[in-house]
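Final report, results section. Input specification for complex C-07:
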Amino acid sequence: VDVVETLTVTITRADRAADHFGVTADQVADSIRRVHALDLQDRTAFAAASVLGAIIDIATVHRLDCRQAACPTCLAIRDGLAANLANLRTLRSDAIEQRRVLA
Amino acid sequence: VTSDDTTLVTAGVLAEAYGVTDEEIAAALRSITHRVGYPPTGEHVHFLIEAAVSVAAAHVHCSDVGCGTCEEIADGLVLVMALLRIRMDRQLEVMVDPVVAETAGVVGIGKVAPPAGSLRNIRAVHDDVTSEIELGAGEPRSGDTPTEHP
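Structure output:
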């Protein structure tokens, strides 16, 4: 995995979407400041928890709003939830294993 | 019960509502661990970021005034953009290390000052022109010279 290349592709896509949805540079800067206040280990945990939370929030609201039969947003949310659960299960297994080793 | 457990339960309920199957979850898990290995790292976070961006991209044609999904997506994108910028900055810091840069074939790296209001301001240059990485549509302005490595 080429980290920079992967990040570049995602940033380009996120940048377009952020422009479209009216995200401002000031909002991003505020968020960056909040994350910078954390240490490196906490940043990963914060990032995972926050993005998981964002996907879940979108899914919750869209579930109530959506009336379309073949909705592309629903499809993307489904994929996001699959990745979400896969990650959560991985993280939980890891936490359980860590507890077992420490016990 | 930890916050992870609560999130897992919530995500599980929603996954069921959206018709996500166990097979799809298992496939996502295989794909993630195949690409970035195990145990979980920042790369796993990137998969979630990609998923959030894909949701935003899928909803981009919405024209409903006061759409709740649009509002949630905008909130999520604030966080996503911040995390992506932090990750890219860290990655570029690593690449600035002369030894790492030489190994990676990087000949120049630096930040290009963005136009006012733009979120796009990062640029790295490899010796292979086809692998040039540029995060914005604009050309660098005069005086925005990348730092050259010897």
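Strands of chain B lie at 106-111, 122-126, 133-134, 147-148. The two ends of chain B are 54 Å apart (CA to CA). This concludes the modelling results for the funded period.
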